[in-house]
Amino acid sequence: MFDTVENTRRTMVINGLVFPEDADDPASSFLIRTLTVGTPSILSPGSGNIRMPFVSPMPDADIHLIETWIRAGVPGAQCLPNAQNRGCQAVTVTVGGQSVTNYNVVECVDGNAGAVVQACTGTQICDSRSGNGECK
User: Fold this and answer.
1) Which DSSP category does 15 fall into?
2) Quick one: pLDDT at residue 1?
3) How far apart are CA 31 and CA 58, in angstroms?
4) Around Cβ 134, how many Cβ atoms within 10 Å?
5) Do the bridges between strand 39-40 and strand 49-50 make them parallel or antiparallel, or are there none, so unpaired?
6) What integer pLDDT is reported at residue 109 of this predicted model?
7) Which of 2, 5, 46, 50 is nearest to 30 (CA)?
8) Which residues lie closer than 8 Å to 31 by C-beta, 6 or more apart?
9) Buried b vs exposed e over 40-78: b needs ≥16 C-beta within 10 Å?
10) Predicted structure pTM score
11) Is residue 2 over pLDDT 80?
12) Which of 7-21, 29-43, 58-72 is modeled with the greatest confidence?
């Protein structure tokens, strides 16, 4: 749902539509791919790519504006703040040729990730869908 800033932030963060690390290559972000070339249908696997919005393609100028926002590090959609202004951050790094995701609890004000408050350890994760702002 994109009717308010809060709902847009929630949709972007919860659904993983865009991440700060997409700033290096906005065109490869899930959001831009969905708006331009489409992504595989979740509801009808094997039916081909679905491009959003369904009704008609988004104007190139609007896509360029979104790419500029992604290139800036997705300000306002880096995390989803809880009541204590904390949120979750997942950072994926490559170690020995394998991708490893580390989870952190971060300060989160107006959807912008700040300092790491706690690094999740072992198999703990911090997820905005459940336990937002804490390692579980």
Assistant:
1) T
2) 64
3) 12
4) 17
5) antiparallel
6) 94
7) 50
8) 12, 17, 18, 22, 66, 70
9) eeeeeeeeeeebeeeeeeeeeeebeebbebbeebbeebb
10) 0.81
11) no
12) 58-72
